[in-house]
Design brief:
With 191 residues, this protein is an alpha/beta fold. 15% of the residues lie in helices and 29% in strands. The protein contains three helices and eight strands. A four-stranded antiparallel beta sheet has the order 2-1-3-4, with no helix packed on it. It starts with a strand and ends in a 12-residue tail after the last helix. 18% of the residues are buried.
Amino acid sequence: LQGELEWALLDLNDGPVFRSPIDLPRGSQKRVQVALLSRNFSRSAHIRIIVNGQNVAQQNVTIEPIEVDKYLVVVISSDPTLLNVVTTLQLPPASSTIVQHMRLDELPEQAAVLRSVNTLVLHDIDTAQLSPQQRDTLRTWIGLGGQLIVSGGVQGQLSAAGKMCIRDRSSIALHAQVFGFAIGYPLFAIE
């Protein structure tokens, strides 16, 4: 089944409709990440699968927007509970902290999708598996002020494989102070 995945916010009349190609082999199940940018507080969207111009499946889904006064930490790690304790911190000027976990293959390939992310933590994962588009996205996101933390673990050598550290020591020092971890040098540029 080859077609398009289409999604739109339900409470916007004549609002934008987003589309992305989708390939679903017969009998398959697929998890798809959808980049949805909104300037309002929409809490639901309509998703359709369209094949040859025909609607073959549709569903309304609930969206959990993250308000701008929240500090969002995205964690990509072999440990599904890593940094959950950070939700107890209040990092001024944010009203609270949210920790969201995702897989490496879910890391977006558009920097705009990371716009609401304050800090991205890559821990104990093989950073060499990042696609060129994901690397470009991280470069752009960091250049726009995103905070990247790369740490080791049991497979620490894999975390360093993609040389995903940054040279800006001021932002690293801030996170070292907030999260209480040690900094190892030298720092590398994203390659």
